[in-house]
Amino acid sequence: xxxxxxxxxxxxxxxxxxxxxxxxxxxxxxxxxxxxxxxxxxxxxxxxxxxxxxxxxxxxxxxxxxxxxxxxxxxxxxxxxxxxxxxxxxxxxxxxxxxxxxxxxxxxxxxxxxxxxxxxxxxxxxxxxxxxxxxxxxxxxxxxxxxxxxxxxxxxxxxxxxxxxxxxxxxxxxxxxxxxxxxxxxxxxxxxxxxxxxxxxxxxxxxxxxxxxxxxxxxxxxxxxxxxxxxxxxxxxxxxxxxxxxxxxxxxxxxxxxxxx
Length: 261
What we know:
Largest sheet: 4 strands, antiparallel
Strand order of the largest sheet: 1-2-4-3
Oligomer: single chain
Distance between the termini: 84 Å
Order of helices and strands: HEEEEHHHEEEEHH
Number of helices: 6
Strand content: 15-25%
C-alpha cells in the first residue's frame, strides 16, 4: 500500500470514528450561565470567570472584564469573560464574604491589561477544565455550614480576618484572642504560627495571635464555596505548613504595626 493510500485510509478511519463518537454521544446537563473564581496553572493571579451560553446572550451585557473568548463543545457554546483580581482585592472579598468587613466595591471595576501569554494560558486551561467545573457545580451543596463552622465561628473577645503582610506574596487567616485572666488556650492547634502581643495601656491582658497559611488553591476553593456554593474538601483547611523564620518575623511585625501599635 502506498503512503498516499495509507493516509487516505487513515483519514477515512478518523472520519468514521468521529461520526461514531457523535452518534454515541449522550448529552449532559448544561448550565445556561455560571460563575466561579479560578487560578490557571503557570499563573499566580486570581480571576473571576463568567460563562454564558451563546443562546442566552443579550446585547445589554456589560464590558466589566479583562479578557473574553468563546468555547464550543458538542452540545453547547459559551461566551467566557475573565476578570483579573489582584491579591489585595481577593483579601477584601474574603473578608467581606466570611467576616462581613466592608470594602469599596468600585475596586471591582478596575481594568487590567493581560499579557498575551496570560490570555493564552487562561483560555487553554479554562477550555480544558470547563466540563469538570460544570460537573462540580451541579453536584455541589449550596450550604455553607461546614466552612462557616471552621472560618466564621468567633468567640467573645476575638476577631478574625484574612491578611497579606508587606513583602510576602502569601495570604493568611489570622485569629486574635484577648488573653483574659481565665484564658485557656484551645488544645486544637489549627494554625501555622502564633505569637503573643501586649496591648498598649493594658498591663494585665495580652493578645494571642494565630496565623494560618492559605495556599492559592485553597483560597479559590473558599471563595467558590462561600460565594457560589461549590463544594471542596474542608479537611484541606486543616493541613499544616512550615513557615520560614523570615515569614514568621515579617508576619508578626506587620500584624503588630497594623493592628496593635
